[in-house]
Write a structure and sequence with these properties.
The chain is mainly alpha-helical. The protein contains 6 helices and no strands. It is elongated, with a radius of gyration of 17 Å.
């Protein structure tokens, strides 16, 4: 968390971090998700010193979006990203699967 953050933002950060870890994210990734989310909310509410255009003009907050944009892109995650997720989940037969098969096996 940035220095000078309010107690509310500190609690928010810890809550988001804990939720991400419970979903199976690594501690480092959970911290990154929490920091990015809290920083975006700080920017939206005018608490941050600087903010990107997308942070201030986005009609939906991160909570309202609920991860709609994560791994979005034109076609979603790459085959390599899907393969890595399948490896972490110990999906049997992943090495011979196509991108579509990996998506199906991961429930996407």
């Amino acid at each position: 968390m940035p220095a000078g953050s309010s107690a509310k933002r500190e609690r928010q950060y810890e809550h988001i971090k804990k939720s991400a870890e419970q979903r199976g994210e690594s501690t480092r990734r959970a911290e990154e998700i929490a920091a990015r989310t809290v920083n975006k909310e700080r920017a939206r509410s005018g608490e941050a010193e600087s903010a990107s255009r997308t942070s201030t003009r986005d009609p939906k907050s991160a909570y309202e979006r609920g991860g709609q944009r994560s791994h979005g892109g034109a076609e979603g995650p790459t085959k390599d990203q899907l393969y890595e997720e399948a490896r972490k989940r110990h999906v049997h037969g992943r090495s011979s699967m196509t991108k579509q098969e990996l998506k199906r096996a991961l429930g996407r």
